[in-house]
Specification:
Blueprint lengths: L1 E3 L1 H9 L6 E3 L3 H4 L8 E2 L5 H4 L8 E5 L4 H12 L3 E5 L12
Length: 98
């Protein structure tokens, strides 16, 4: 499974890269802050909502610590999506949130 650190994600965003971020945390966690531009689909909804994702685009998956996003990355990867897990999750995120 491909991995990226929160610092690497932040650096890419600061360079103006167009990233496709998918936050799989629960709604109450997202209320505490989400990376601007990220799509929110709770982990439990990913199997039924993955049709909302574009299989031709690479996604960076995000959760609180990297565990749930890792499970989502495994699932979506098996379904043919190009996914990378943000290790450390939002606990390690130092960038802006909304």
């Amino acid at each position: 499974m491909k991995e990226i650190t929160p610092i690497e994600v932040q650096e890419l965003l600061e360079k103006g890269e167009q990233l496709h971020l998918l936050d799989v945390r629960e709604a109450d966690e997202v209320e505490e802050g989400i990376i601007p531009g990220a799509t929110h689909i709770p982990l439990g909804d990913v199997p039924v909502r993955m049709s909302e994702l574009d299989v031709s685009k690479p996604y960076i998956l995000i959760c609180r610590s990297g565990g749930r996003s890792g499970r989502a990355a495994e699932f979506l990867g098996d379904e043919g999506y190009d996914v990378t897990n943000m290790v450390g999750g939002m606990l390690k995120w130092e960038g802006t949130t909304e």
